[in-house]
Every structure is written in structure tokens, then in C-alpha cells.
Amino acid sequence: MSQLPSFFEFTHLGEEEQYDVTFKNGDFVGTSEKGNKKFVLYKLNNFFVEIIYDIERNSIISLTAFFNPKK
Length: 71
What we know:
This protein has 71 residues and is of the alpha+beta class. It is built from two helices and four strands; from the N terminus they run ααββββ.
């Protein structure tokens, strides 16, 4: 992908492509932890992607794309 996808384009990519685009092109924003979960936030274009990890199993639980509601 030569340019970053729009939110619509991103949400229509396959799951593996979403992870690939996020890890390669997303700007890391920060992390937080709650219990055995780690939340990692990335910014892509004008939207954000949150990836949740299971710390104990060292595996990804989910990926969610969303807009910043405070714009």
C-alpha cells in the first residue's frame, strides 16, 4: 500500500492486513495495562487503532479502529 488507508479502507482490509498496516505505518501513541491485558494505541491518518494483548499468553486478543471523539 503506497499511502495510508482511510478509515473506511482500513476497516475493509482483512485482519492480517490491518495488523500489517498498523505495525508498519502506525504512529505509536502509548500503552496501558489492566489485569492481564495490555492496550497499545497507534495513530493512522485521522483515526486510531487499539490492539489488546493477553500478557500471560503473549498473544493478541483484538484490534479495534476508531475515530477520536474529542475533535
